Task: inverse folding
């Protein structure tokens, strides 16, 4: 039984007040908890949440940098940028999607049959993001759409930066081309730097100087709401947005002389071949031509499958850069190098005359090595052997030198290794040695003496590219200086127009060759063009300046090797390759040229006249007189840019003096 | 003299005279009215920004405020005795309305909470937020305190019947708040400490059990609270985005109308349940401190008023109104900052919409009535 309880107001009031104080204490604790939490969020972790907030609402839109131009030595633009136009459709703003597309089809801007596919593609996108529905509009298509624009709400023409090669095919193998970034390239590039970039250099200067040309993309920040839609009028929120302008890529100045380049390509037209001309004193490439060619604009604008297959399946293979990649036997053009080797080794007395008949056989063997067309050279010394290109003479020189020394000697002239030209894809050719033979032909009984013999006339397994041959001609022209061939001479800042010149690279100096040896060989090469028995006498008969040259006829069939050969009767694919190297004017040549015309017969027949015309065009003024040696081009490298000398190369001697530009 | 003037219904003529005399005539407490006014004004400022400069929303809120003030004025003028005698009727009406909701209620967002009265939608559960503490206080008013077990049983029924009905709607947040309001009355009445502890344990046990019978989304909310990053785009989204908004505001905030989380729609429910985050984003810790100080002032003043009341009913009801107001603020702030689970509790006087602003002001109207009529009661 509980006692009767009487309501005691005072007591209740006291209890109430006590309880209120207790509750107040609890509330203070709760308030402190809230405040501590706010302090943690807003003070201690403010930056963390600030970053998250920015990441939420700020989308960074890349602004692609303008790609650098590629210009020749006179400043003529070989690669530039120009906008192409595409048709973009913003689904949100198009009232009648199917109807609009059908009206576009009537204007022949989209294909009627593509409409269902287009609609599916459009529906799969965010409704407020523009979808490209037609790329690469031609000017007439742009015009056709522009006059009817008002009929197509939500459909706009937008410009896209694209690459444009105004000279089309001209110099394509030097300049290269750009194309859409492939999946494998995507894996290798810095994707952040390429956000907003659609095209990447695929070959030539475009690929080699990709980083320089590309520039640095900028960005612009835009506000997006939670749905990802851009906020057009951000108001006060705009102050949280940053913008960084893009830095355009540098222009690349290439050493090509377009006059010569154009001539070279014209001379090669209709034939498979290559021309490489360079300045022997710094390696600057004057012309780099391969025939046939192709139009690089096809790739930059998105090549169609049909066009691509046509290029790939063309039997003359226009995509193939013969100048850098065609590895062939070079025939007699090798002879000056062999002669210099034998002279330096002391196994050859240049003045001793020996009888050279129509053929020669190895001591102790009855296998005969024939002269070209069974010619009889007669009793000749080294001078006449080079002038007449006497195979029988050089069989013996090579045999005397032996393969070990020849194999070590020929790389001095750049054979068997890449020249280091500043565009990708170069082949290294081949200097065969017994070790190489054993490795690649293990079933053969090693290296035969005969292999050495035919190496003496640039036949057999020996291979070189036209570029290597021009490089080799350059070494001969400078009497031993090996400059890395190069196309890019300078980088020009597109804003300040300041030019950063690249130093030529001297990567070899053949100081072991005596002055007299050079004298003998170069005199003989001069004789090739001046002596009536010289193989290039008729090609160069009109020359107004002294030229050193050497012909080469690379034989491709067994019958040829035996000298039983009839040009007309031989299928084209098996006909001789015509080679020619030359440098002029003596004594201080300004240009070294190598010419290859495939399957055209003797070197003097097809390649020689091309070399002659190129040298004339480069060296002679309009009056037919030799031009002065001073630089004439707008972007000639200043004379005070000294070459960079590779380690191990002797920079002393008179070499450096000689290296000063003529 | 003044009171006579009021009694004769001539107050209308005096609304333009001195503020203190008006307040007195209207039975309003000056400091509390001032605190409520400042809070509401601050709320309007924030709401305008949170709604993206939506003037219609602002006008709607001003109209609701006006309605709330009218109700507050009316209630303040009623005598506490009348309020006390009306309590069981009000409570009974509330229960009936809840039953009506269950029968013919308007379904919105999957919950049946609204009654349509012509053009106006009305949430009976809001009425119970006031009616339940009133009923509890009414019950305890007659009885000697502290309450005995039998009283506790009766109070339990009084509280749990509407709580169950509201929880069934389902509106767990409001149900919990109603239960809390009743519990506060019981606690303030002086229920012995060991019983309080025992009851708390019981609630925890019931809660654990209840987890098994919760709706999927209710349980999800709770689990999300425990680990928001597990579902960043679904149920965790609210918590993450509101914390980003608050945190990125820093000490001084991004400025009025410049909160990117709110302006760019990343912050959900930014005009209603999560408006606290807008304050934090745009005005920073400083702005929140000002808001919380205003609330502290309102709550402190309310408790002071309650303590001044002479009778059990007034004290208990007044204390309950003050403490439940605190609970609303705490739960809302805690929810936005990630201290407590996301439950749909608006920020008093600041959040947009619903009947809550009217309920809150009518609570304060009752409180002022209890206080300002105290001398008449002897």
Result:
């Amino acid at each position: 039984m509980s006692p009767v309880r009487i309501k005691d107001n005072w007591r209740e009031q006291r209890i109430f007040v006590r309880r209120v104080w207790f509750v107040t204490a609890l509330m203070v604790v709760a308030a402190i908890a809230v405040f501590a939490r706010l302090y943690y969020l807003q003070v201690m972790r403010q930056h963390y949440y600030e970053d998250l907030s920015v990441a939420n609402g700020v989308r960074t839109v890349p602004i692609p940098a303008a790609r650098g131009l590629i210009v020749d030595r006179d400043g003529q633009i070989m690669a530039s940028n120009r906008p192409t136009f595409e048709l973009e459709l913003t689904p949100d703003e198009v009232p009648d999607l199917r109807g609009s597309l059908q009206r576009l089809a009537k204007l022949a801007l989209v294909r009627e049959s593509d409409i269902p596919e287009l609609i599916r593609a459009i529906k799969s996108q965010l409704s407020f993001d523009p979808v490209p529905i037609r790329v690469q509009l031609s000017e007439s298509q742009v015009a056709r759409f522009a006059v009817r624009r008002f009929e197509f709400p939500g459909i706009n023409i937008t410009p896209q930066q694209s690459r444009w090669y105004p000279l089309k095919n001209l110099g394509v193998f030097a300049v290269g081309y750009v194309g859409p970034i492939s999946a494998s390239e995507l894996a290798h590039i810095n994707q952040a730097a390429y956000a907003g970039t659609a095209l990447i250099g695929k070959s030539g200067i475009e690929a080699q100087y990709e980083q320089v040309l590309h520039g640095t993309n900028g960005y612009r920040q835009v506000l997006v709401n939670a749905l990802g839609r851009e906020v057009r009028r951000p108001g006060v929120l705009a102050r949280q947005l940053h913008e960084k302008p893009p830095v355009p890529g540098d222009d690349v100045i290439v050493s090509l002389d377009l006059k010569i380049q154009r001539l070279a390509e014209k001379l090669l037209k209709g034939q498979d071949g290559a021309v490489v001309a360079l300045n022997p004193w710094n390696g600057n490439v004057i012309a780099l031509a391969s025939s046939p060619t192709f139009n690089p604009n096809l790739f930059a604008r998105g090549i169609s499958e049909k066009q691509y297959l046509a290029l790939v399946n063309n039997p003359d293979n226009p995509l193939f850069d013969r100048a850098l990649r065609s590895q062939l036997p070079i025939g007699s053009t090798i002879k000056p190098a062999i002669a210099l080797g034998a002279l330096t080794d002391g196994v050859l007395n240049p003045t001793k005359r020996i009888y050279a008949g129509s053929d020669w056989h190895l001591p102790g063997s009855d296998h005969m090595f024939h002269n070209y067309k069974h010619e009889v050279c007669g009793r000749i010394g080294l001078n006449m052997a080079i002038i007449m290109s006497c195979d029988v003479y050089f069989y013996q020189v090579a045999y005397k030198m032996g393969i070990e020394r020849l194999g070590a000697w020929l790389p001095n002239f750049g054979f068997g290794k890449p020249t280091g030209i500043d565009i990708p894809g170069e082949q290294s050719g081949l200097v065969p040695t017994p070790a190489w033979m054993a490795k690649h032909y293990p079933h053969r009984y090693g290296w035969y003496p005969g292999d050495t013999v035919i190496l003496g006339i640039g036949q057999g397994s020996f291979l070189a590219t036209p570029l290597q041959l021009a490089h080799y001609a350059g070494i001969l022209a400078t009497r031993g200086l090996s400059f890395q061939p190069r196309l890019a001479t300078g980088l020009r800042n597109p804003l300040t127009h300041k030019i950063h010149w690249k130093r030529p690279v001297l990567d070899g100096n053949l100081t072991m060759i005596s002055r007299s040896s050079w004298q003998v060989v170069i005199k003989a090469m001069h004789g090739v063009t001046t002596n009536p028995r010289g193989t290039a006498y008729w090609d160069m008969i009109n020359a107004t300046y002294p030229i050193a040259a050497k012909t080469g006829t690379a034989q491709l069939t067994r019958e040829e090797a035996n000298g039983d050969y009839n040009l007309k009767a031989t299928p084209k694919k098996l006909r001789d390759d015509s080679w020619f190297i030359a440098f002029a004017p003596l004594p201080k040549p300004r240009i070294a040229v190598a010419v290859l015309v495939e399957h055209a017969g003797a070197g003097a027949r097809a390649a020689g006249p091309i070399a002659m015309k190129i040298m004339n065009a480069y060296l002679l003024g309009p009056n037919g007189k030799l031009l002065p040696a001073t630089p004439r081009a707008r972007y000639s490298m200043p004379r005070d840019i000294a070459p960079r000398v590779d380690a191990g190369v002797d920079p002393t001697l008179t070499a450096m003096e000689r290296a000063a530009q003529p | 003299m003044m009171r006579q003037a009021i009694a004769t219904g001539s107050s209308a003529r005096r609304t333009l005279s001195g503020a203190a005399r008006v307040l007195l005539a209207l039975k309003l407490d000056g400091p509390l009215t001032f605190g409520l006014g400042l809070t509401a004004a601050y709320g309007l400022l924030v709401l305008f920004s949170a709604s993206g400069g939506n003037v219609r929303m602002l006008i709607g809120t001003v109209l609701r405020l006006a309605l709330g003030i009218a109700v507050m004025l009316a209630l303040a003028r009623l005598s506490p005795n009348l309020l006390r005698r009306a309590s069981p009727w009000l409570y009974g009406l509330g229960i009936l309305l809840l039953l009506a909701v269950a029968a013919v209620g308007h379904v919105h967002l999957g919950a049946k909470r609204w009654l349509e009265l012509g053009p106006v939608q009305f949430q009976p559960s809001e009425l119970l937020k006031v009616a339940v503490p009133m009923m509890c206080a009414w019950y305890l008013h007659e009885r000697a305190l502290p309450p005995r077990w039998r009283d506790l049983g009766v109070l339990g029924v009084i509280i749990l019947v509407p709580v169950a009905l509201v929880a069934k709607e389902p509106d767990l947040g409001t149900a919990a708040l109603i239960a809390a309001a009743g519990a506060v009355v019981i606690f303030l009445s002086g229920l012995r400490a060991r019983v309080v502890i025992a009851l708390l344990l019981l609630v925890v046990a019931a809660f654990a059990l209840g987890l098994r019978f919760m709706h999927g989304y209710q349980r999800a909310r709770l689990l999300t609270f425990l680990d928001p990053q597990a579902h960043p785009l679904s149920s965790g989204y609210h918590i993450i985005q509101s914390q980003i908004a608050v945190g990125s505001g820093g000490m001084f905030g991004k400025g009025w109308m410049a909160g990117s989380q709110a302006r760019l729609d990343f912050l959900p429910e930014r005009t209603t349940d999560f408006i606290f985050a807008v304050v934090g984003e745009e005005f920073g810790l400083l702005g929140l401190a000002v808001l919380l100080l205003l609330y502290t002032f309102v709550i402190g003043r309310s408790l002071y008023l309650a303590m001044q009341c002479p009778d059990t009913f007034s004290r208990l009801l007044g204390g309950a109104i003050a403490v439940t107001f605190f609970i609303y603020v705490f739960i809302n702030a805690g929810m936005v900052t990630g201290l407590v689970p996301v439950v749909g509790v608006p920020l008093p006087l600041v959040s947009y919409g619903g009947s809550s602003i009217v309920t809150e002001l009518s609570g304060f109207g009752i409180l002022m009535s209890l206080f300002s009529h105290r001398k008449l009661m002897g």
In short: Residues 40-377 of chain B form one domain. Chain B has one domain: 40-377. Chain B touches chain A through 54 residues (CB under 8 Å).
